[in-house]
Structure formats: C-alpha cells, structure tokens
Amino acid sequence: MSTATATAPRSPAPDRPPATADRRRRFLPRVGHWFVTPYVVFLLVVFAYPLLYNLWISFHRFYFTAPGAHVPSPWVGFANYRDVFADPVVRKSFVNIGIFLVINVPLTVVLALVLAAALNAKLPFRGFFRAAFYLPYVTASVALVAVWSFLFGSDGLVDKVLGPLAPDPSWLVNSTWAMPVLAFFVTWKQLGFFVMLYLAALQNVSGELYDAASVDGAGTLRTFLSITVPGVRPATTVVTVFAIITGSNLFTEPYLLTGGGGPADASVSPVLVMYQKGIEQAHPDFAAALGVVLVVLVVALSLIARRFTEKGD
C-alpha cells in the first residue's frame, strides 16, 4: 500500500522592494539638499549677512576706518532714523520715487502685456520684433544713457523737433519733467524683460479658450480682457513686484542722466541719497538707516501690489 503525501502550496512571500530602491529613496532627498546648499549659502553671505549688519549699523554711530584700525561704534538708538525722517532731501527723494512708480509700474504692466499678446500672435518677423524689444534690457546702461541724453538733453533731438513747444529749461534739467523722463527711460529699458515674462505666461493659456471665444463671436478686445488678462494674472503679480523693486532702487539713471539728482533734487532717489550720504559724505550710519526704511517700504508696497493683483484668483 503506497501513501502519497500531499504538500500544501506555499504562499508566496510578500513583495519587498529591492534594497537598492530603499537606498535610492533615502539618497535622493539628500542629493536635493546638497544641490540647494550652495544657493542657501549664497543667500546667507550676499543678502542675509549684509542686511543684518546694515541693521546693526543703523542703530550705532558708525565710521569708516582703515584696515586694522578700531574706532568705537556707540549705540545711538533711533537717532539715525530721526535724522533720516528730518532730512528734507530724503523726503524729496521719496516723493520723487512715488512719482516715478506711479508712472513706471502701470505703464510697464500695460505695455508689456499688450506687446506680449501681439508678439504671441502669428505675425511676420515675430522673432525680429522679440529680439528688438529685448535688446535694450541687455544693453549697457551707459550706452542707453548716451542715447537718451542725445534725445532729451539740452538742444537734443526732441527739443529740435518740438521747437517752440519744447520745455524751457530742457527735459533733464527741468524740475517738472526730469522724473517723468527717467520713468519713461526705465520703462523702455526694462520693457523687453517683462515682455518675455508675459510671453512665457501666455504659453500656459489654453488655445481652446481663444477658439471658444472666437466661436461665440467675441472681439479682440473682449477676448483680451476676458481670457488673456485673467490667464496671466500670476505673471502680472511678478511683473508688478519686480517693477516696484527695481524702481525703488533707482540709482544709475539719475546719477548719469541728471547729474546726480538735479536740478535742485528734482530727480534724486533714496538709493542716490544713500550713496551721497554714505560714500561721498562719509555717514554710513545715516545711509544704513535710510536703507532699512527703504526696504520696509518696498516690502510693504510689494505685499500690497501682490494682494491687489491676485484679487479674483
């Protein structure tokens, strides 16, 4: 008599991820941290440390010294800030930068979006026009200043074209027109960069929306206002904040075009005052306090602009 022994089928072992997969999952986040580390170090060294040191200087009586020399820097509290707010040139510089931003920021946003929408269409020579608008942004500021000095300087081309209608004194030495001319100059200079930002944003707007608008009989203006403008709202936030930051840091243009903020401080900017007080007049503590005030103002304006442009998302 033979007996057969039946063996129950062995249940398969649960699948386990390979050891290499486990190591990869543990390793990849560390790789990401290592890639981010240089940028974090850069931010700490180039931005965070100078900002904190500048804040420290603003509360002390600080002097430039020769290497190796030590001069006491006594604590003065808010004395430097009181000097900043009491200085009439500082107050004038903030009024000037307010005028500048009122002209520059809306003009930049509107022109950049309209031009980007036009350049996004299938137009002949589209690549040429894109490069032409971007060229001023990558051109040296000194070269662009020479062009605008030729156009708006005393006996410049614009004065000759306008003839008796030209302002007297001329644009760049006119206390009424100096700041608006600087605003137009910076708008023209930086417009190409913001056009490229909008062009990139327009690639994310679905073409089906435009097709549907065309089927519904929407005109060009209605399509632009109902589809394009809402579709690029995040880019509008970026453009607005960038324009506020760059405009608030205005320095090169008044320094070169109007001879250092003239006439009679009509085009002086806060950063230009920081340079004059801190470098030319050797009052770095005053300049540091002014820098802190400017940073706070720029952050506040940027947050307000962001809240306004993101409304409706």
Please specify the SSE layout and strand pairing.
Layout (H helix, E strand, L loop, with lengths): L18 H40 L20 H8 L1 H33 L5 H13 L2 H12 L4 H6 L15 H25 L4 H9 L4 H12 L1 H16 L3 H6 L12 H11 L3 H26 L4
Helix pairs in contact: 1-13, 2-13, 3-7, 3-10, 4-7, 7-10, 10-13, 12-13
Organism: Streptantibioticus silvisoli
GO cellular component, one term: plasma membrane
Membrane topology: Multi-pass membrane protein
The CATH architecture can be given as Orthogonal Bundle
Note the beta-strand portion: under 5%
Spell out the helices and strands N to C.
Answer: HHHHHHHHHHHHH
Domain count: the total is 1
What's the CATH class label? Mainly Alpha
Biased composition (Low complexity): 1-10
Family: Belongs to the binding-protein-dependent transport system permease family.
Region (Disordered): 1-21
Subcellular location: Cell membrane
